[in-house]
């Protein structure tokens, strides 16, 4: 590719809207351009890199036995209503009506499309297992799109769906995908961890995320200091504490706490520490109230609550909800809540006694609250946000929180979709049975951003060769010198004959601009041919990642560049 004809308008200055390195450098390096908030156009350099990622994904998916299909972006709403996800996704869905008034949506994922499609062909057990995948654009109307390709409203995704006869088959399909994903991310050059995860709006049971480690990542994970446990922070389970059995029970006493509606205000007013407070958070879960109890110094992990009640939508009570249920906002406690309110408590609540909590009337709290004497707990669950210092559920080691970018997520779905959608196959005995399903997603455009986050420096991007838009660039430093131009052309063509995916910078730009652009775009190998090099019969070969340089005789440049490429990460 000749850069003189390539549409790659690089930028000298950092765009004001770019908050993180990947967004800044993908804009400056002419990989993407914004169209509207959360939606970007992909320029030729970006297309080339994304196609290389797609090719890696296709090769590994095909090798695993999966078959590629193409499903529509515009989907009917009815299957989503049948599974409960139409309401669960809510405003995240791009919703529309066709000219006949039928409710439609732009697909954020395709379980409700692929399941009826497979079921419609009346498969038998002999047709299983089956794994279908596609690479297609997905749409989610994010409330706050940000960070370029990391959190957009349109994104390119590989999604796959396995159909099996029984649970054992589903697990085998899942393990095949787990191995394929490891190969994919290894080949893309990413540094990643595989963690136990929270299924979120997809649902299901066992699931794992593939997280690219990154300082700016919005996705948090925990790892045990002993190295035997990793999990998404939303799914991480701290070691459950043993119930406290010592100490006398205090009398339940109501106290006047005027204007003290927060944990901090009550703790200060009563000269108590926040861990002595019992926080009572109230949620609307599918139009019914649920109270969640956690110690005052902990927060409720709403993703864990969503998992318990999937697919019912979960949201915190708002002002109107408190009024409608006759509850005093800021002063809610578990004692005296109506029987219709389910009360859940985190396991950490078991270890405390003599709690300070709301008295269920304005400006009042109670001290000495204990269960079961003063309030009920309908069930104990893991409900708190994990934090550094919590203990590992496997061995009690210290848990540490790290940042990452989720680039892949795989799920064991069981019959979560085949059941409500009545998707069945004919078994050996002639009975109809629901498919045991799995689903498997990879963010193609997210991988591009995650690699950019991991591999850059002050000068620009530093791509792994597997996903670089070009493996090598021949930089003609003195375009006005016919000898230099001719030698650059010769080296460029020779690299092509050796199988190197190369570009030649034959633009009428200064050498300084070309050098800066080469580092900004991040070609793994750079070959510089200039007037001084021609005079001494050499060219400069540079490895972008390490900065290693070597002067090579002109006759050996193509071979030396190929050798350098073999050493490049």
The tally of structural domains comes to 3
| Residue-averaged pLDDT | 94
CATH class of the largest domain: Alpha Beta
Instruction: Kindly identify the CATH topology of the largest domain.
Output: BirA Bifunctional Protein, domain 2
- Overall number of strands: 31
- Summarize the amount of helix as a percent range: 25-40%
How would you describe the shape?
globular
Tell me what portion of residues adopts beta-strand conformation.
25-35%
Please compute the radius of gyration using only Cα atoms.
Answer: 29 Å
Provide the CATH architecture of the largest domain. Answer: 2-Layer Sandwich
How far apart lie the N and C ends? 22 Å
Based on the model shown, name its key terms.
Rossmann fold, 3 domains, 569 residues, alpha+beta, YbaK protein, five-stranded mixed beta sheet, 14 helices, BirA Bifunctional Protein, domain 2
Provide an overview of this structure.
With 569 residues, the chain is an alpha+beta fold. It has three domains: 47-237 and 400-453, Bira Bifunctional Protein, Domain 2 (BirA Bifunctional Protein, domain 2); 253-381, YbaK/aminoacyl-tRNA synthetase-associated domain (YbaK protein), CATH 3.90.960.10; 470-567, Rossmann fold (3-Layer(aba) Sandwich). The chain is built from 14 helices and 31 strands. The strands form eight sheets. Strands 3, 7, 8, 9, 10, 11, 12, 21 and 24 form a nine-stranded mixed sheet that branches. A five-stranded mixed sheet has the order 16-14-15-17-20. A five-stranded mixed sheet has the order 28-27-29-30-31, with helices on both faces. Strand 1 and strand 2 (39-42) form a beta hairpin. Helix 2 (44-63) runs antiparallel to helix 6 and helix 2 packs across helix 10 (444-454). The longest helix is centred in the N-terminal third of the chain and has 22 residues, at 167-188. The chain is globular and about 95 Å long.
């Amino acid at each position: 590719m000749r850069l003189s004809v390539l549409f790659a308008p690089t930028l000298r200055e950092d765009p004001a809207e770019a908050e993180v390195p990947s967004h800044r450098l993908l804009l400056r390096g002419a990989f993407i351009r914004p169209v509207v908030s959360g939606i970007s156009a992909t320029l030729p350099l970006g297309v080339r890199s994304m196609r290389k990622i797609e090719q890696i994904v296709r090769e590994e998916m095909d090798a695993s036995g999966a078959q590629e299909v193409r499903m529509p972006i515009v989907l009917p709403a009815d299957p989503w209503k049948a599974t409960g996800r139409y309401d669960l996704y809510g405003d995240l869905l791009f919703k529309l009506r066709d000219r006949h008034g039928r409710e439609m949506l732009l697909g954020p994922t395709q379980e409700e499309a692929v399941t009826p499609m497979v079921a419609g062909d009346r498969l038998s057990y002999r047709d299983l297992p089956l794994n279908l995948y596609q690479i297609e654009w997905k749409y989610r109307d994010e409330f706050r799109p940000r960070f370029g390709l990391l959190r957009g409203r349109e994104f390119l995704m590989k999604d796959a769906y396995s159909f099996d006869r029984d649970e054992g088959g589903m697990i085998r399909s899942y393990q095949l995908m787990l191995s394929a994903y490891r190969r994919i991310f290894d080949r893309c050059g990413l540094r990643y961890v595989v963690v136990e995860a929270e299924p979120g709006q997809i649902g299901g049971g066992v699931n794992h995320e593939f997280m690219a480690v990154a300082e700016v990542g919005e996705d948090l994970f925990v790892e045990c200091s002993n190295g035997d446990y990793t999990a998404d922070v939303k799914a991480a389970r701290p070691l459950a504490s043993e119930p406290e059995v010592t100490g006398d029970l205090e009398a339940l006493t109501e106290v006047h706490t005027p204007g003290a509606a927060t944990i901090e205000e009550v703790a200060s007013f009563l000269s108590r520490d926040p861990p002595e407070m019992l926080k009572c958070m109230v949620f609307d879960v599918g139009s019914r109230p649920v109270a969640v109890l956690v110690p005052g110094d902990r927060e409720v992990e709403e993703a864990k609550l969503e998992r318990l009640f999937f697919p019912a939508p979960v949201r915190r009570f708002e002002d109107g909800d408190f009024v409608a249920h006759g509850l005093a906002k800021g002063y809610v406690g578990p004692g005296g809540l109506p029987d219709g309110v389910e009360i859940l408590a985190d396991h950490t609540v078991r270890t405390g006694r003599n709690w300070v909590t709301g008295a269920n009337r304005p400006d009042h709290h109670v001290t000495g609250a204990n269960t079961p004497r003063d309030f009920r707990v309908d069930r104990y669950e893991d409900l708190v946000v994990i934090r550094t210092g919590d203990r590992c559920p496997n061995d009690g080691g210290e848990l540490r929180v790290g940042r990452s970018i989720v680039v892949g997520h795989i799920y064991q779905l069981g019959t979560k979709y085949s059941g409500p959608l009545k998707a069945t196959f004919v078994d050996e005995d002639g009975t109809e049975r629901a498919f045991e399903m799995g689903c498997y997603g990879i963010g193609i455009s997210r991988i591009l951003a995650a690699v950019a986050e991991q591999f850059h420096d002050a000068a620009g991007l530093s791509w792994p060769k597997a996903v670089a838009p070009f493996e090598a660039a021949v930089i003609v430093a003195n375009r006005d010198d016919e000898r230099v131009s001719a030698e650059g052309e010769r080296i460029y063509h020779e690299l092509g004959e050796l199988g190197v995916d190369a570009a030649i910078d034959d633009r009428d730009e200064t050498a300084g601009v070309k050098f800066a652009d080469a580092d900004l775009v991040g070609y793994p190998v750079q070959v510089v041919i200039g007037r001084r090099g021609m005079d001494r019969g050499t060219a400069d070969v540079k490895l972008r990642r390490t900065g290693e340089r070597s002067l090579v005789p002109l006759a050996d440049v193509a071979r030396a560049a190929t050798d350098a490429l073999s050493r490049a990460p």
